[in-house]
Protein backbone atom coordinates (compact mmCIF):
# COMPACT_ATOMS: atom_id res chain seq x y z
CA UNK A 1 0.00 0.00 0.00
CA UNK A 2 1.08 3.58 -0.68
CA UNK A 3 -0.12 6.98 0.54
CA UNK A 4 -0.20 10.21 -1.43
CA UNK A 5 -0.57 13.43 0.55
CA UNK A 6 -1.28 16.72 -1.22
CA UNK A 7 -0.97 19.85 0.92
CA UNK A 8 -3.15 22.23 -1.07
CA UNK A 9 -4.05 25.82 -0.37
CA UNK A 10 -7.65 25.04 0.55
CA UNK A 11 -7.33 21.47 1.84
CA UNK A 12 -5.07 18.52 2.52
CA UNK A 13 -6.02 15.39 0.59
CA UNK A 14 -4.76 11.86 1.31
CA UNK A 15 -5.28 8.81 -0.87
CA UNK A 16 -4.43 5.18 -0.12
CA UNK A 17 -3.41 3.09 -3.12
CA UNK A 18 -2.93 -0.62 -3.54
CA UNK A 19 0.13 -2.15 -5.16
CA UNK A 20 -1.64 -1.97 -8.54
CA UNK A 21 -2.39 1.75 -7.91
CA UNK A 22 -6.08 1.06 -7.36
CA UNK A 23 -7.74 3.55 -5.01
CA UNK A 24 -8.53 1.98 -1.62
CA UNK A 25 -9.87 5.10 0.11
CA UNK A 26 -9.28 8.82 0.54
CA UNK A 27 -9.81 11.65 3.02
CA UNK A 28 -9.78 15.44 2.95
CA UNK A 29 -9.33 18.10 5.63
CA UNK A 30 -10.09 21.76 4.93
CA UNK A 31 -7.67 24.67 5.37
CA UNK A 32 -8.18 28.41 5.55
CA UNK A 33 -6.15 31.29 4.13
CA UNK A 34 -5.57 34.51 6.08
CA UNK A 35 -5.40 37.87 4.28
CA UNK A 36 -4.35 40.37 6.98
CA UNK A 37 -3.67 43.13 4.41
CA UNK A 38 -4.66 43.70 0.77
CA UNK A 39 -2.49 41.55 -1.48
CA UNK A 40 -1.28 39.35 1.39
CA UNK A 41 -1.95 35.61 1.64
CA UNK A 42 -0.75 33.53 4.60
CA UNK A 43 -1.31 30.20 6.37
CA UNK A 44 -0.32 28.78 9.72
CA UNK A 45 2.18 25.94 9.03
CA UNK A 46 0.85 23.97 11.96
CA UNK A 47 -2.59 23.93 10.30
CA UNK A 48 -1.07 21.72 7.58
CA UNK A 49 0.13 19.30 10.22
CA UNK A 50 -3.24 19.18 11.97
CA UNK A 51 -4.90 18.54 8.61
CA UNK A 52 -2.42 15.73 7.88
CA UNK A 53 -3.20 14.19 11.24
CA UNK A 54 -6.90 14.42 10.43
CA UNK A 55 -6.68 12.70 7.06
CA UNK A 56 -4.40 9.92 8.29
CA UNK A 57 -6.68 9.36 11.26
CA UNK A 58 -9.54 9.09 8.75
CA UNK A 59 -7.65 6.58 6.60
CA UNK A 60 -6.99 4.48 9.68
CA UNK A 61 -10.67 4.55 10.62
CA UNK A 62 -11.74 3.55 7.09
CA UNK A 63 -9.08 0.93 6.26
CA UNK A 64 -6.89 -0.02 9.27
CA UNK A 65 -5.58 -3.30 7.81
CA UNK A 66 -4.69 -1.72 4.49
CA UNK A 67 -3.05 1.24 6.19
CA UNK A 68 -0.86 -1.09 8.22
CA UNK A 69 0.63 -2.39 4.96
CA UNK A 70 1.82 1.03 3.73
CA UNK A 71 5.44 0.96 2.56
CA UNK A 72 5.80 4.39 0.97
CA UNK A 73 4.43 7.92 1.47
CA UNK A 74 4.68 10.60 -1.17
CA UNK A 75 4.23 14.32 -0.57
CA UNK A 76 2.99 17.11 -2.79
CA UNK A 77 2.21 20.69 -1.93
CA UNK A 78 1.53 24.21 -3.12
CA UNK A 79 4.79 25.72 -4.26
CA UNK A 80 6.79 28.82 -3.32
CA UNK A 81 5.49 29.19 0.25
CA UNK A 82 8.06 30.74 2.62
CA UNK A 83 8.01 28.69 5.84
CA UNK A 84 10.60 30.13 8.24
CA UNK A 85 11.84 28.05 11.18
CA UNK A 86 14.04 28.94 14.13
CA UNK A 87 16.94 26.83 15.40
CA UNK A 88 14.49 24.60 17.31
CA UNK A 89 12.40 23.92 14.20
CA UNK A 90 9.51 26.16 15.29
CA UNK A 91 7.73 28.40 12.76
CA UNK A 92 8.67 32.04 13.23
CA UNK A 93 5.66 33.53 11.41
CA UNK A 94 2.78 32.45 9.18
CA UNK A 95 3.85 31.02 5.84
CA UNK A 96 3.75 33.57 3.00
CA UNK A 97 1.87 31.77 0.21
CA UNK A 98 2.31 31.47 -3.56
CA UNK A 99 -0.46 34.01 -4.29
CA UNK A 100 0.89 36.70 -1.95
CA UNK A 101 1.76 39.92 -3.80
CA UNK A 102 3.56 42.03 -1.19
CA UNK A 103 7.08 41.68 -2.60
CA UNK A 104 6.68 43.49 -5.94
CA UNK A 105 9.31 46.12 -5.06
CA UNK A 106 11.78 43.45 -3.98
CA UNK A 107 11.28 41.57 -7.26
CA UNK A 108 12.33 44.52 -9.38
CA UNK A 109 15.33 45.21 -7.17
CA UNK A 110 16.51 41.59 -7.15
CA UNK A 111 16.26 41.28 -10.93
CA UNK A 112 18.30 44.42 -11.38
CA UNK A 113 20.92 43.51 -8.78
CA UNK A 114 21.42 39.84 -9.70
CA UNK A 115 20.84 38.96 -13.37
CA UNK A 116 21.67 35.30 -12.65
CA UNK A 117 18.14 34.91 -11.29
CA UNK A 118 17.14 34.94 -14.97
CA UNK A 119 19.91 32.60 -16.17
CA UNK A 120 20.71 30.15 -13.35
CA UNK A 121 17.25 30.43 -11.83
CA UNK A 122 15.65 30.41 -15.28
CA UNK A 123 12.61 32.43 -14.25
CA UNK A 124 11.49 36.01 -13.80
CA UNK A 125 11.58 37.23 -10.21
CA UNK A 126 7.87 37.29 -9.35
CA UNK A 127 6.11 37.99 -6.05
CA UNK A 128 4.85 34.42 -6.01
CA UNK A 129 8.35 32.96 -5.71
CA UNK A 130 10.12 32.33 -2.42
CA UNK A 131 13.28 34.43 -2.80
CA UNK A 132 11.57 37.86 -2.99
CA UNK A 133 9.40 36.90 -0.01
CA UNK A 134 12.54 36.40 2.06
CA UNK A 135 13.90 39.69 0.83
CA UNK A 136 10.66 41.32 2.00
CA UNK A 137 11.07 39.70 5.42
CA UNK A 138 14.71 40.80 5.50
CA UNK A 139 13.68 44.41 4.93
CA UNK A 140 10.42 44.57 6.88
CA UNK A 141 10.81 41.98 9.67
CA UNK A 142 14.56 42.00 10.34
CA UNK A 143 14.17 40.36 13.76
CA UNK A 144 12.40 37.39 12.13
CA UNK A 145 14.98 37.21 9.35
CA UNK A 146 17.83 37.18 11.88
CA UNK A 147 16.31 34.19 13.67
CA UNK A 148 15.63 32.19 10.49
CA UNK A 149 17.65 28.98 10.73
CA UNK A 150 15.81 27.03 8.01
CA UNK A 151 13.56 27.90 5.06
CA UNK A 152 11.18 25.16 3.97
CA UNK A 153 8.45 24.83 1.39
CA UNK A 154 5.03 23.75 2.67
CA UNK A 155 5.22 20.03 1.91
CA UNK A 156 8.79 19.95 3.27
CA UNK A 157 7.58 21.30 6.61
CA UNK A 158 5.16 18.37 6.73
CA UNK A 159 8.09 16.06 5.87
CA UNK A 160 10.04 17.54 8.78
CA UNK A 161 7.15 16.71 11.10
CA UNK A 162 7.00 13.19 9.65
CA UNK A 163 10.70 12.33 9.65
CA UNK A 164 12.59 14.95 11.67
CA UNK A 165 14.69 15.60 8.54
CA UNK A 166 15.18 18.87 6.66
CA UNK A 167 14.86 17.67 3.06
CA UNK A 168 13.55 19.19 -0.16
CA UNK A 169 13.38 18.00 -3.75
CA UNK A 170 14.14 19.44 -7.17
CA UNK A 171 10.75 20.42 -8.59
CA UNK A 172 9.67 22.44 -5.55
CA UNK A 173 13.15 23.86 -4.94
CA UNK A 174 13.22 25.23 -8.50
CA UNK A 175 10.28 27.44 -7.52
CA UNK A 176 12.28 29.24 -4.84
CA UNK A 177 14.60 31.00 -7.36
CA UNK A 178 17.60 29.85 -5.31
CA UNK A 179 18.21 26.73 -7.41
CA UNK A 180 20.64 26.39 -10.29
CA UNK A 181 17.93 24.63 -12.28
CA UNK A 182 20.18 23.10 -14.96
CA UNK A 183 22.55 21.66 -12.32
CA UNK A 184 19.73 20.69 -9.91
CA UNK A 185 21.57 22.17 -6.93
CA UNK A 186 21.36 25.25 -4.70
CA UNK A 187 23.16 28.31 -6.05
CA UNK A 188 25.36 30.07 -3.51
CA UNK A 189 25.20 33.26 -5.59
CA UNK A 190 21.40 33.39 -5.69
CA UNK A 191 21.14 32.61 -1.99
CA UNK A 192 23.63 35.36 -1.17
CA UNK A 193 21.50 37.88 -3.09
CA UNK A 194 18.86 37.52 -0.37
CA UNK A 195 21.28 37.23 2.55
CA UNK A 196 21.08 33.45 2.92
CA UNK A 197 23.41 30.45 2.73
CA UNK A 198 23.13 26.71 2.10
CA UNK A 199 23.01 26.16 5.86
CA UNK A 200 19.48 27.58 5.82
CA UNK A 201 18.34 25.28 3.00
CA UNK A 202 17.29 21.62 3.24
CA UNK A 203 19.35 18.95 1.53
CA UNK A 204 17.94 17.94 -1.84
CA UNK A 205 16.85 14.58 -3.25
CA UNK A 206 15.01 13.58 -6.39
CA UNK A 207 11.25 13.33 -6.07
CA UNK A 208 11.22 9.57 -6.62
CA UNK A 209 14.01 8.96 -4.08
CA UNK A 210 13.83 8.30 -0.34
CA UNK A 211 14.10 11.34 1.93
CA UNK A 212 13.70 9.56 5.28
CA UNK A 213 11.40 7.27 7.24
CA UNK A 214 8.34 7.96 9.34
CA UNK A 215 9.17 8.48 13.02
CA UNK A 216 8.43 5.57 15.36
CA UNK A 217 5.81 7.37 17.45
CA UNK A 218 3.84 8.21 14.30
CA UNK A 219 4.12 4.62 13.07
CA UNK A 220 2.58 3.51 16.37
CA UNK A 221 -0.18 6.13 16.15
CA UNK A 222 -1.35 5.05 12.70
CA UNK A 223 -0.57 1.35 13.02
CA UNK A 224 2.08 0.93 10.31
CA UNK A 225 3.73 -2.51 10.47
CA UNK A 226 7.07 -1.08 9.37
CA UNK A 227 8.23 2.52 9.05
CA UNK A 228 7.20 3.72 5.56
CA UNK A 229 9.79 5.47 3.43
CA UNK A 230 8.90 9.11 2.70
CA UNK A 231 9.64 10.03 -0.91
CA UNK A 232 11.05 13.35 -2.03
CA UNK A 233 7.70 14.03 -3.69
CA UNK A 234 6.99 17.04 -5.86
CA UNK A 235 5.56 20.49 -6.18
CA UNK A 236 1.86 20.35 -6.97
CA UNK A 237 2.14 20.65 -10.75
CA UNK A 238 5.08 18.26 -11.10
CA UNK A 239 3.24 15.77 -8.88
CA UNK A 240 0.11 16.20 -11.01
CA UNK A 241 2.25 15.42 -14.06
CA UNK A 242 3.34 12.19 -12.36
CA UNK A 243 -0.32 11.44 -11.72
CA UNK A 244 -1.27 11.79 -15.40
CA UNK A 245 1.87 10.08 -16.69
CA UNK A 246 3.37 13.27 -18.15
CA UNK A 247 6.96 12.32 -17.41
CA UNK A 248 8.29 11.70 -20.94
CA UNK A 249 9.59 14.66 -22.96
CA UNK A 250 6.84 16.21 -25.06
CA UNK A 251 3.95 15.04 -22.90
CA UNK A 252 1.64 17.83 -21.78
CA UNK A 253 -1.44 18.59 -19.72
CA UNK A 254 -3.71 21.54 -19.08
CA UNK A 255 -4.97 22.05 -15.54
CA UNK A 256 -8.18 23.99 -15.02
CA UNK A 257 -8.13 24.42 -11.28
CA UNK A 258 -8.16 27.51 -9.07
CA UNK A 259 -5.23 28.61 -11.20
CA UNK A 260 -4.59 27.50 -14.76
CA UNK A 261 -1.49 25.68 -15.98
CA UNK A 262 -0.20 24.55 -19.35
CA UNK A 263 2.52 22.01 -18.48
CA UNK A 264 5.04 20.40 -20.86
CA UNK A 265 7.78 17.89 -19.95
CA UNK A 266 11.28 18.54 -21.37
CA UNK A 267 14.54 16.61 -21.60
CA UNK A 268 16.55 19.74 -20.80
CA UNK A 269 16.34 23.08 -19.00
CA UNK A 270 14.42 25.37 -21.41
CA UNK A 271 13.73 28.85 -20.01
CA UNK A 272 11.90 31.77 -21.65
CA UNK A 273 12.09 34.55 -19.09
CA UNK A 274 10.95 37.28 -21.50
CA UNK A 275 7.44 35.77 -21.58
CA UNK A 276 7.39 34.73 -17.91
CA UNK A 277 7.45 31.00 -18.69
CA UNK A 278 8.19 28.87 -15.62
CA UNK A 279 11.13 26.50 -16.28
CA UNK A 280 11.60 24.04 -13.42
CA UNK A 281 13.03 20.64 -12.61
CA UNK A 282 10.57 17.76 -12.85
CA UNK A 283 9.94 15.41 -9.91
CA UNK A 284 11.69 12.53 -11.74
CA UNK A 285 15.45 12.43 -12.40
CA UNK A 286 17.11 14.03 -15.45
CA UNK A 287 13.87 15.69 -16.53
CA UNK A 288 12.64 19.29 -16.54
CA UNK A 289 9.40 21.00 -17.43
CA UNK A 290 7.97 24.30 -18.63
CA UNK A 291 4.76 25.88 -17.46
CA UNK A 292 2.64 28.73 -18.60
CA UNK A 293 0.77 29.79 -15.48
CA UNK A 294 -2.33 31.94 -15.03
CA UNK A 295 -3.35 32.88 -11.51
CA UNK A 296 -7.15 32.63 -11.93
CA UNK A 297 -8.89 29.92 -13.97
CA UNK A 298 -11.88 28.28 -12.29
CA UNK A 299 -11.52 31.05 -9.71
CA UNK A 300 -12.98 33.34 -12.37
CA UNK A 301 -16.09 31.16 -12.58
CA UNK A 302 -16.25 31.02 -8.78
CA UNK A 303 -16.15 34.82 -8.66
CA UNK A 304 -18.86 35.13 -11.31
CA UNK A 305 -21.00 32.62 -9.45
CA UNK A 306 -20.70 34.55 -6.21
CA UNK A 307 -21.56 37.78 -8.01
CA UNK A 308 -24.61 36.34 -9.81
CA UNK A 309 -25.68 34.21 -6.81
CA UNK A 310 -25.42 31.00 -8.85
CA UNK A 311 -23.12 27.99 -8.63
CA UNK A 312 -20.36 27.64 -11.25
CA UNK A 313 -21.94 24.34 -12.29
CA UNK A 314 -25.29 26.00 -12.91
CA UNK A 315 -23.63 28.75 -14.95
CA UNK A 316 -21.83 26.33 -17.27
CA UNK A 317 -24.83 23.97 -17.51
CA UNK A 318 -26.97 26.81 -18.82
CA UNK A 319 -24.50 27.40 -21.66
CA UNK A 320 -25.18 24.35 -23.83
CA UNK A 321 -23.26 25.30 -26.98
CA UNK A 322 -21.34 28.13 -28.65
CA UNK A 323 -21.26 29.10 -32.32
CA UNK A 324 -18.31 31.42 -31.91
CA UNK A 325 -16.60 33.70 -29.40
CA UNK A 326 -18.71 35.60 -26.89
CA UNK A 327 -19.74 39.15 -27.85
CA UNK A 328 -18.23 40.29 -24.54
CA UNK A 329 -14.52 39.98 -23.74
CA UNK A 330 -13.11 39.12 -20.32
CA UNK A 331 -9.59 39.56 -18.95
CA UNK A 332 -9.15 36.93 -16.19
CA UNK A 333 -6.69 38.90 -14.06
CA UNK A 334 -8.54 38.92 -10.73
CA UNK A 335 -5.29 38.92 -8.77
CA UNK A 336 -2.66 39.87 -11.35
CA UNK A 337 -1.07 37.53 -13.88
CA UNK A 338 2.09 35.50 -14.41
CA UNK A 339 2.55 34.23 -17.98
CA UNK A 340 3.16 36.22 -20.11
CA UNK A 341 2.83 39.56 -18.29
CA UNK A 342 4.43 39.04 -14.87
CA UNK A 343 2.12 41.78 -13.59
CA UNK A 344 0.93 41.67 -9.99
CA UNK A 345 -1.00 44.94 -10.32
CA UNK A 346 -3.23 44.28 -13.35
CA UNK A 347 -6.87 43.45 -12.64
CA UNK A 348 -9.74 41.76 -14.47
CA UNK A 349 -12.25 43.47 -16.75
CA UNK A 350 -15.21 42.91 -19.05
CA UNK A 351 -15.37 44.78 -22.35
CA UNK A 352 -18.32 45.09 -24.69
CA UNK A 353 -21.19 44.78 -22.21
CA UNK A 354 -24.53 45.94 -23.64
CA UNK A 355 -28.23 46.04 -22.68
CA UNK A 356 -28.52 42.50 -24.06
CA UNK A 357 -25.73 41.03 -21.91
CA UNK A 358 -27.08 38.33 -19.61
CA UNK A 359 -25.72 35.61 -17.34
CA UNK A 360 -25.04 33.24 -20.23
CA UNK A 361 -23.05 35.84 -22.16
CA UNK A 362 -20.96 36.66 -19.08
CA UNK A 363 -20.33 32.95 -18.47
CA UNK A 364 -19.32 32.49 -22.11
CA UNK A 365 -17.00 35.49 -21.82
CA UNK A 366 -15.31 34.03 -18.73
CA UNK A 367 -14.76 30.66 -20.45
CA UNK A 368 -13.31 32.47 -23.46
CA UNK A 369 -11.11 34.73 -21.33
CA UNK A 370 -9.49 31.81 -19.51
CA UNK A 371 -8.98 30.03 -22.84
CA UNK A 372 -7.37 33.16 -24.33
CA UNK A 373 -5.00 33.35 -21.36
CA UNK A 374 -4.05 29.70 -21.94
CA UNK A 375 -3.38 30.64 -25.57
CA UNK A 376 -1.01 33.30 -24.23
CA UNK A 377 0.75 30.52 -22.31
CA UNK A 378 1.00 28.36 -25.45
CA UNK A 379 2.46 31.26 -27.42
CA UNK A 380 5.07 31.83 -24.70
CA UNK A 381 6.04 28.15 -24.72
CA UNK A 382 6.30 28.25 -28.51
CA UNK A 383 8.85 31.05 -28.29
CA UNK A 384 10.93 28.74 -26.08
CA UNK A 385 10.89 26.14 -28.86
CA UNK A 386 8.14 23.90 -27.48
CA UNK A 387 5.43 22.47 -29.74
CA UNK A 388 2.30 20.76 -28.44
CA UNK A 389 -0.09 18.61 -30.46
CA UNK A 390 -2.30 17.29 -27.67
CA UNK A 391 -2.88 17.84 -23.97
CA UNK A 392 -4.58 15.91 -21.19
CA UNK A 393 -7.22 17.92 -19.31
CA UNK A 394 -7.33 17.75 -15.51
CA UNK A 395 -8.85 19.82 -12.73
CA UNK A 396 -12.41 20.80 -11.88
CA UNK A 397 -12.86 22.87 -15.04
CA UNK A 398 -12.19 19.81 -17.21
CA UNK A 399 -15.70 18.57 -16.37
CA UNK A 400 -17.05 21.16 -18.84
CA UNK A 401 -16.90 19.61 -22.32
CA UNK A 402 -17.89 22.94 -23.82
CA UNK A 403 -14.94 24.68 -22.17
CA UNK A 404 -12.60 21.99 -23.53
CA UNK A 405 -14.06 22.46 -27.05
CA UNK A 406 -13.26 26.17 -26.83
CA UNK A 407 -9.73 25.45 -25.61
CA UNK A 408 -9.11 22.79 -28.29
CA UNK A 409 -10.30 25.11 -31.05
CA UNK A 410 -8.35 28.12 -29.82
CA UNK A 411 -5.09 26.27 -29.08
CA UNK A 412 -5.59 24.04 -32.16
CA UNK A 413 -4.67 20.93 -30.20
CA UNK A 414 -6.46 17.69 -29.30
CA UNK A 415 -7.65 17.61 -25.69
CA UNK A 416 -7.78 14.17 -24.06
CA UNK A 417 -10.19 13.50 -21.20
CA UNK A 418 -9.30 10.70 -18.75
CA UNK A 419 -11.91 8.18 -17.61
CA UNK A 420 -11.46 9.38 -14.06
CA UNK A 421 -10.81 13.11 -13.90
CA UNK A 422 -9.24 12.97 -10.44
CA UNK A 423 -5.62 12.52 -11.49
CA UNK A 424 -4.33 15.20 -9.22
CA UNK A 425 -1.23 15.80 -7.18
CA UNK A 426 -2.20 13.25 -4.51
CA UNK A 427 -2.04 10.42 -7.06
CA UNK A 428 1.31 11.64 -8.34
CA UNK A 429 2.57 11.86 -4.77
CA UNK A 430 1.46 8.27 -4.08
CA UNK A 431 3.23 7.11 -7.24
CA UNK A 432 6.41 8.87 -6.10
CA UNK A 433 6.04 7.13 -2.74
CA UNK A 434 5.76 3.80 -4.55
CA UNK A 435 8.86 4.57 -6.63
CA UNK A 436 10.85 5.41 -3.49
CA UNK A 437 9.70 2.22 -1.75
CA UNK A 438 10.50 -0.01 -4.74
CA UNK A 439 13.70 1.81 -5.70
CA UNK A 440 12.65 2.21 -9.35
CA UNK A 441 10.46 4.38 -11.56
CA UNK A 442 9.86 1.58 -14.10
CA UNK A 443 6.17 1.12 -14.82
CA UNK A 444 5.10 3.57 -12.10
CA UNK A 445 3.98 6.61 -14.10
CA UNK A 446 1.50 5.20 -16.61
CA UNK A 447 -0.91 7.41 -18.55
CA UNK A 448 -4.59 7.12 -17.58
CA UNK A 449 -7.25 5.47 -19.71
CA UNK A 450 -9.19 7.99 -21.82
CA UNK A 451 -12.95 8.31 -22.10
CA UNK A 452 -12.89 10.88 -24.92
CA UNK A 453 -10.71 13.11 -27.06
CA UNK A 454 -11.85 16.53 -28.27
CA UNK A 455 -10.43 17.79 -31.55
CA UNK A 456 -10.58 21.42 -32.61
CA UNK A 457 -14.05 22.29 -33.93
CA UNK A 458 -13.43 23.36 -37.58
CA UNK A 459 -15.95 26.21 -37.73
CA UNK A 460 -14.65 27.68 -34.44
CA UNK A 461 -10.93 27.82 -35.30
CA UNK A 462 -10.92 30.96 -37.47
CA UNK A 463 -13.41 33.01 -35.38
CA UNK A 464 -11.53 32.26 -32.18
CA UNK A 465 -8.16 33.08 -33.79
CA UNK A 466 -9.58 36.45 -34.86
CA UNK A 467 -11.11 37.08 -31.43
CA UNK A 468 -7.80 36.26 -29.75
CA UNK A 469 -6.11 38.96 -31.82
CA UNK A 470 -8.67 41.51 -30.58
CA UNK A 471 -8.48 40.23 -27.00
CA UNK A 472 -4.70 40.70 -26.86
CA UNK A 473 -5.16 44.45 -27.37
CA UNK A 474 -7.13 44.77 -24.14
CA UNK A 475 -4.25 44.19 -21.70
CA UNK A 476 -2.06 47.07 -22.95
CA UNK A 477 -5.11 49.34 -23.14
CA UNK A 478 -6.13 48.48 -19.58
CA UNK A 479 -2.55 48.87 -18.38
CA UNK A 480 -2.19 52.28 -19.99
CA UNK A 481 -5.45 53.39 -18.35
CA UNK A 482 -4.02 52.54 -14.93
CA UNK A 483 -6.04 49.41 -14.11
What does this structure look like?
The chain is of the alpha/beta class and 483 residues long. Helix content is 36%, strand content 21%. Strands 1, 2, 3, 5, 13, 14 and 15 form a seven-stranded mixed β-sheet that branches. It has a seven-stranded mixed β-sheet with strand order 18-19-17-16-22-23-24. Strand 18 and strand 19 (288-294) form a beta hairpin. The radius of gyration is 22 Å and the shape is globular. The chain starts with a strand and ends with a helix.
Features:
single chain, about 475 residues, alpha/beta, 7-stranded mixed β-sheet, about 35% helix
Concise summary:
This protein is α/β, with parallel strands linked by helices and 483 residues long. The protein contains 18 helices and 24 strands.
